Amino acid sequence: xxxxxxxxxxxxxxxxxxxxxxxxxxxxxxxxxxxxxxxxxxxxxxxxxxxxxxxxxxxxxxxxxxxxxxxxxxxxxxxxxxxxxxxxxxxxxxxxxxxxxxxxxxxxxxxxxxxxxxxxxxxxxxxxxxxxx
Length: 133
What we know:
By secondary structure, the chain is of the alpha+beta class. It has one domain (6-116): Orthogonal Bundle (Arc Repressor Mutant, subunit A). The chain has 5 helices and 3 strands; from the N terminus they run H-H-E-H-E-E-H-H. The protein has a 3-stranded antiparallel β-sheet with strand order 1-3-2, covered by helices on one side. The radius of gyration is 21 Å and the shape is elongated. The chain starts with 5 loop residues before the first helix and ends in an 18-residue tail after the last helix.
């Protein structure tokens, strides 16, 4: 799959992190640049290359489904096992979010609750009980 562009990632960040008030709009492009700076033309980056501040941003991007993390065990000298953590770009998701008309709902339950009008949430002691339909 082709590399993600700065514009694609910026748009996806705007429609996720910015739309959910996790970062200000002014941080969308710098965050995209920072992420792409780590990945370059690769699809993965080792976690230990990240600064702690940048790692926090990666976790936010993971929450929005734009990145994912994985780990693998590697045997090194004298039979010791090291666990290697790395990050992967979710290119298809980034492109889907970036091209969508608006930010996607977090999950199906969230979209159901959002579709219910405000009047349905009001409690009125004099209202008849709902009927099963």
